[in-house]
Write a structure and sequence with these properties.
single chain; 540 residues; mainly alpha; 85% helix
Length: 540
């Protein structure tokens, strides 16, 4: 391949990255919107009281494995291996590997589910010992956790389906599958809550049932697409299969390497149980709001980049890897820096608009908004980690993310234990956000050394420009919201929506003007990505 062909290939990869990220983002946006509706239902029915605290602790345990499998080590290890076998040996060999991985996942996760259900009490007690001080609270958390443990097995298989489809460049449907989880909750919770209340059963159990229904839906929505591609399930077990061994080699330490965020959340949960009723729920609502841009932008960009990174790594084309990574990181910054500043500037009105109704009070709004402000800086760190860790996997290095994540966990624990004494539950949000930035910075520095550079001057220039534009945008949005409180007073949903919507619009206009004035070329790519999501998906 000559220089012109290579350059054209890289340009094509960049354009494909934007298109694929837009496609994934459209599906992810659907999921996040439905997830927001789900959270609004939870806030309406349960607020931030003892039942919601118990559910958050109960779901955190199986959800830890969900995050690691669905968005973590299994996918990051499986996709490069499956992609290589698909390219080198054809679909039949790749389908065989898919069956082997699915069957191995079923066996392993079934064992974990059994152990989890047997040892639920000590597991829950480790993270929520203080709940024993409230009559019935820890017992409720234990009962909820036992119901939800099978979710782990369901979502692990769904993650394998997702990896195969992504390797085949089928991005939209796998990215849409989490939306079915949220959709199940939206249907099940309002239908089941009155039934449970009428029969003297705590309504929070409706959420546990919805969790299992959602796990089944995540598998079911992807199965027809796999069938159309030619996949057929076979009960194959082959522990000695070289593809499976390769995945396990990457996945074993990789599980630890991608566990930093989850361990940090578990530490937060442990410390937050001592901060009184509602603290865990406030942190959970705030984290989910902060995580929405990560799902929309960071994860979708990383998912779209991973197959290209794997192909470049297989050809030992470090220059192409640098180009793809640079494009991914710059696109992430252009989207997530404004999102970070916007969340800080409009934290309280956003939380009020989304959640303040039913059992969710104005005091809950203030507490959740405070947590969101302290979480928000970590958005960039989380998104960069989503891109950096799979890059190490693509070059068969799972050791580096492990070492970095262990160091990050130590830093996070030290900061959170210190900050919670000074800032209460808000210190937990701040410590988590800072540790995510440290994690990302260390990974990118080491990746730069590994690849001989990351086009860092161009990345730094883009960051400074978008930061300046975003700060002006944040000031404009905050000022607009303050002014609109006098022009459009009231606490109705319509008044709140008008204030937040117009404030965001004012901020976006200022951001666009600032980006143009600063010559931020990547802003146009980011705008195309956002428009693609708003206009809906294109055929795959």
């Amino acid at each position: 391949m000559d220089v012109a062909d290579t350059a054209a290939s890289r340009t094509s990869d960049g354009a494909r990255l934007v298109r694929s990220a837009g496609l994934i983002g459209a599906a992810t946006a659907t999921s996040r919107v439905l997830g927001l509706v789900r959270d609004q239902l939870l806030a309406y029915y349960f607020g931030a009281g003892h039942a919601m605290d118990a559910y958050n602790v109960a779901f955190r345990i199986p959800n830890l494995f969900r995050d690691l499998f669905a968005e973590g080590a299994m996918s990051a290890a499986f996709v490069p291996t499956f992609t290589r076998q698909l390219a080198a040996e054809g679909r039949d060999r790749a389908w065989r590997l898919g069956n082997i991985v699915i069957n191995a996942l079923v066996l392993v996760t079934f064992g974990l589910v059994l152990l989890g259900m047997i040892f639920t009490r000590p597991l829950v007690t480790v993270f929520a010992e203080r709940y024993a001080e409230v009559p019935g609270k820890i017992e409720l958390a234990i009962a909820l956790a036992r119901i939800m443990f099978p979710f782990l097995m369901l979502v692990a298989v769904a993650a394998a389906f997702m990896g195969m489809l992504n390797s085949l460049r089928r991005f939209f449907l796998p990215a849409l599958s989490p939306a079915t989880f949220n959709f199940a909750a939206i249907l099940v919770i309002p239908a089941l809550v009155p039934v449970l209340r009428a029969n003297g059963i705590q309504p929070i159990f409706a959420v546990a049932v919805a969790t299992l229904v959602g796990g089944l839906a995540q598998m079911g929505v992807q199965w027809p697409a796999l069938r159309r591609e030619g996949f057929r399930y076979r009960p194959i077990l082959a522990p000695s299969d070289r593809g499976l061994r390769e995945i396990l080699v990457l996945m074993g330490p990789g599980t630890v390497g991608l566990a930093a965020v989850q361990v940090n959340l578990l530490v937060n949960m442990l410390l937050a149980t001592g901060e009184g009723a509602g603290a865990i729920s406030w942190l959970n609502y705030a984290f989910r709001l902060m995580y929405m841009p990560i799902g929309l932008f960071g994860l979708s960009i990383a998912t779209a980049a991973l197959p290209s990174l794997s192909r470049h790594a297989a050809r030992d084309d470090l220059a192409a890897m640098r180009t793809t990574l640079s494009s991914s990181l710059r696109l992430m910054l252009i989207l997530n820096v404004p999102a970070t500043v916007g969340l800080i500037a409009l934290a309280r009105p956003i939380v009020s608009l989304l959640f303040e109704r039913g059992s969710f009070t104005a005091a809950d709004t203030a507490a959740t908004a405070a947590a969101l402000i302290f979480y928000a800086p970590g958005l960039l760190g989380y998104s960069a980690v989503k891109i950096a860790v799979p890059s190490f996997y693509a070059v068969h290095d799972s050791r580096t993310p492990v070492l970095v994540s262990v160091a990050t966990m130590v830093i996070n624990v030290a900061m959170n234990v210190t900050l919670v004494r000074v800032l209460g539950y808000r210190g937990l949000a701040l410590g988590t956000g800072v540790s995510a930035i440290v994690n990302a910075g260390a990974l990118l520095w080491l990746l730069r050394n590994r690849l001989g550079g990351l086009d860092e001057r161009r990345i730094a220039t883009s960051f400074v420009k978008v930061l300046v534009a975003s700060l002006v945008m944040g000031a404009a949005a905050w000022g607009a919201e303050q002014w609109l409180q006098h022009v459009l007073p009231g606490i109705s949903t319509l008044a709140r929506l008008a204030r937040v919507g117009l404030s965001i619009l004012a901020g976006m206009v200022v951001l666009a003007a600032g980006s143009r004035a600063l010559g931020l070329a990547e802003f146009n790519e980011a705008l195309r990505l956002v428009v693609a999501r708003l206009s809906g998906p294109r055929p795959e």
